[in-house]
Amino acid sequence: MIEPLDPMAFKKIVFFTGAGMSAESGVHTFRGAGGIWSQYRWQEYACQQAFERDPQKVLDFHELRRKEALRCQPHAGHRVITDLQQRHSAVFVITQNIDGMHQRAGNKQVIELHGSLWRVRCRIHGVRLDMAETYTHRRCPDCGQWLRPDIVWFEDMLDEEEVQAAQYELGTCDLFISIGTSAVVWPAAGYPLIARNNGALCIEINPEPSENCELYHRTIRGKAGEVLPRLFAAAL
Ligand code: NAD
Predict the structure, then answer these.
(1) What is the pLDDT of residues 119-162, one digit of tens each?
(2) Which CATH class is domain 1-27+74-114+158-236?
(3) Which of the four pLDDT bands, split at 50, 70 and 90, describes residue 236?
(4) Which atom of ligand 1 is nearest to 210's Cα?
């Protein structure tokens, strides 16, 4: 039994999502059984040093991730967020996912903590959108430098602007819903605590217990695509 929520009873709602949100669409997780890092060594594919050693190999790997993401479709849980955003002006998404699935479902106001598969960046000329299944350019058309996926890889710092934007929404929301994250990656793992300390009602949706599930006021054991439509059934 899932007790439904009235979104209009809250001034600001933050959905905080991890790999489990996209796993239900068919996108591989990175950790755990069948995860990407059980097949590939991140040291060869997902860090700046690997890129400098062999940019083609790293770009080929990320092209595969793009193809995989495009074969998958947003699910009912993503669509609930889109519907809520049409009714409520302060619904935000903070995601650890890089696959762009939220945007493909029509979600707006999405803070991408770990960057995006759909952007590349040139060390000299900055960030560009590249939405193609295969990279439109592997080198910057202006200076010829290799274009790096605009993703937070292992050993990278998070983008300070995204972190600040996330902190602001966490500190001002009164409903925080965490979906499909095992809460082992920092600083994201501390986000429920920030929201809770600022007075938000904190809810977790995950079929499995996560590292910090005791921080939540309510924990709903189930899949995002099944739980979200029921949680907001009264409003949609
Ligand atoms: P994680 O892989 O560590 O944990 C996934 C969590 O999702 C688990 O707790 C699991 O029980 C839960 N889950 C599985 N199916 C679910 C469902 N249908 N509904 C709700 N929950 C479900 O993921 P993480 O905590 O996001 O950390 C992984 C890191 O890897 C992040 O930094 C992220 O950037 C990155 N990543 C991104 C993608 C992507 O873009 N799709 C995929 C894999 C990993």
Answers:
(1) 999 999 999 999 899 999 999 999 999 999 999 999 999 999 99
(2) alpha beta
(3) confident
(4) 9
Domains of the chain, residue spans: 1-27+74-114+158-236, 29-71+119-151
Is 78 in the active site?
Answer: no
Residues 27 and 36: beta-carbon distance below 8 Å: no
Element housing 115 (H / E): strand 115-122
pLDDT per residue as tens digits for the range 31-56: 767 788 888 999 999 999 999 999 99
Task: Quote the CA–CA distance of 183 and 168 in Å, as a whole number.
Answer: 20
C-alpha–C-alpha distance, residues 113 and 150, integer Å: 11
- Measured from the CA of 36, which atom of ligand 1 is nearest? 43
- Count the neighbouring beta carbons within 10 Å of the beta carbon of residue 14: 26
- Answer whether 31's CB lies under 8 Å from 18's CB: no
Scan for tokens 């809770």, then name that residue: 196
